[in-house]
């Protein structure tokens, strides 16, 4: 039972952190940080900030649809049906992952508390070795993104989506706002934050928790 608990903790905590940082991609402040950074932004023919607000708001449950126009005073719809369909799929995926992340956190905290009560040394060893899986994950995914991002991008969509709605034109609003380079940089940022946090947890575990638990 203890061995299973250690394995589950080593999986659920990194998973929660990964989804937490991936959720940053849906935040309005993060999306606005990229304004004007990509060549495709020169082709923006709509209110950039308004479009970002509507898209981020939809993904974060502030808006119920993506039927918005060139600006807040325009009643037309600038997204094609296929773009809207894809964003519905994206929102559903994010929702499932967020729910799974919350459940993972609850499970991880509960099992960590159990280990703490049963054997403090085993809890320390669990956190000490937790970096191994994430380290190989970051090396593999990070290398994949750098060496062949297009293939990685395609593989991701084929894995998580059951249709081809993600295949869009370069003139589509979603591609103009969020070009390929945006996703590559965002992926590397997520991996950097993820690995840094795992490293920080390892340091805290060795520097402070070890002394507290094993004294």
Explain how this protein is built.
With 215 residues, the chain is mostly helical. It has one domain. The protein is 72% helix and 0% strand. The chain contains nine helices and no strands. The protein starts with a helix and ends with a helix. The mean pLDDT is 92.
Short description:
This protein is mainly α and about 220 residues long. The protein has one domain (about 1-35, about 45-215). It has helices at about 1-20, 30-35, 50-60, 80-120, 120-130, 130-145, 150-160, 175, 180-215.
How many DSSP E strands? 0
The overall pLDDT, averaged over residues, is 92
Q: Total number of helical segments?
A: 9
Question: What is the radius of gyration computed over CA atoms, rounded to a whole number of angstroms?
Answer: 21 Å
Shape: elongated
What structural class is derived from the secondary structure elements? Answer: mainly alpha
Percent of residues in β-strands: under 5%
* Unreliable parts: none
How would you characterize the largest beta sheet? Answer: none
Total separate domains: 1
Could you state the order of secondary-structure elements as H and E? HHHHHHHHH
- Helical content class: over 70%
- Measured between the Cα atoms of the first and last residue, the distance is 25 Å
